[in-house]
Amino acid sequence: MTIEGFSGINGSFQDRVHALLSQQVRDWDLARNNYSGLKRVMRRPLDKPEDADFYVQCNPARIRSSAAKVDARSIRERPCFLCEKHLPAQQRWVEFGREYLILVNPFPIFPRHLTIPVRTHEDQLIAGRMDDMLQLAKALEDFVVFYNGPRCGASAPDHFHFQAGNKGFLPVERMRQDAGKLLRQNDHVDIRAMEQYHRRIIMLRSSDKQALAGCFEQIYDFLKPLQPDQPEPMLNILAGYHAPEWQVLVLPRKEHRPWQFHAQGDEQVMLSPASVDLGGVLVTPREKDYARMDLALMEDIFAQVCIDAANWDDLLNELVHKKP
Ligand SMILES: [Zn+2]
């Protein structure tokens, strides 16, 4: 099986990525079917009829990801689908630096959905990669780049990857900056806290990449000892570049999946919360979960998986009083 890199056309890096998307959706059956299927998926608002903050999407093609077995044994026993040697023959890519491949996600949630693995098979751990994330967000200005921790929605916890989806899709992007509580503001970084239906978000804004990465490190270092059994503090991150600033949303977590995910029969809800769900589009592969989702169930799920109130208050306190 020969896989060639996609050379793209002349123009900006992002133009090459858009060209890759067009080529893959045109020439690769799986991508074509799933991207055209996306136009027919059901979606409805949960909290208000217009400009809602939360939607539910019924997306049957995502069953593979929502129900992914990510225990150590299942992971060991399957071929890694993000390693180059196992990529489908039709998959093309654009290289980002020496380390990353930009791939079209053939099981999309967004009308433009990318998976961005590193070229070596190594664990999903964010430490030391925030700078890469910010560089990607700047190079892909039409996209929001996001990270799902190994127990926070990543279906390949053994192979480091980001994802990206076109801007304008996730309601959380529209969240007004002044809606949050200002924790700290200086020449470099504006730090705010937002809370809605037990979804707790730290919003960082800055045009200084290093200062942002430093702030993220402070959050990471505070959370790490709270979960000594985890390889990293559980979290989801979304980053977008709006010249001249980045906006980074950090969502600390305490659980991988709600109890309903593991339930049997009627009580089961197939929703494995990750960046996209917490960003305001709850993805359910099954129609019955789509039909029953409402604000109360959503809030119950968020309360189970997001950081709890006591640790959240301590984190905010830390961010107000200690400079990194
Ligand atoms: Zn791999």
Question: Can you summarize this structure?
Answer:
The chain has 324 residues and is an alpha+beta fold.
Oligomer designation: single chain
What global shape is seen?
globular
| Helix fraction by DSSP (H/I, runs of at least 4) | 25-40%
Q: Measured on Cα atoms, how large is the radius of gyration? A: 19 Å
The CATH architecture = 2-Layer Sandwich
The SSE string, one letter per element, is HHEEHHEEEHEEEEEHEEHHEHHH
Major sheet summary line = 10 strands, antiparallel
Descriptive account of the structure:
The chain is an alpha+beta fold. The chain has one domain (42-80, 118-321): HIT family, subunit A (2-Layer Sandwich). 30% of the residues lie in helices and 23% in strands. The chain has eleven helices and 13 strands. It has helices spanning 13-27, 29-38, 63-66, 72-77, 130-139, 209-223, 259-262, 275-278, 287-292, 295-305, 309-321; strands at residues 42-45, 55-58, 94-96, 100-104, 113-117, 143-148, 161-166, 181-185, 190-196, 199-206, 235-242, 245-252, 281-284. Strands 3-4-5-7-6-11-12-10-9-8 form a ten-stranded antiparallel β-sheet. A three-stranded mixed β-sheet has the order 1-2-13. Helix 1 (13-27) crosses helix 2 (29-38). The chain starts with 12 loop residues before the first helix and ends with a helix. Mean pLDDT is 92; it is low at 1-9. Bound molecules: zinc ion.
